Amino acid sequence: MSTVSLYRQFLRAAKSFTDYNFQSYAIRRVREQFRDHKALVGSELEAVLKRATEEQLPQLVRMG
User: What is the pTM of this model?
Assistant: First the structure.
């Protein structure tokens, strides 16, 4: 899975919140996390993306 498609999935899940405050917080957190990890490459990036898809994305979808 590419980084861009994962980023879009996270944003889609964040935009599913009906409350504006939760929605803006989730979008801000997604952007911050991807910005923080943009310097990673190779196995480090794969590990971060794997953890994000296994733990954080399903949690965000459930909450939204």
Answer: 0.79
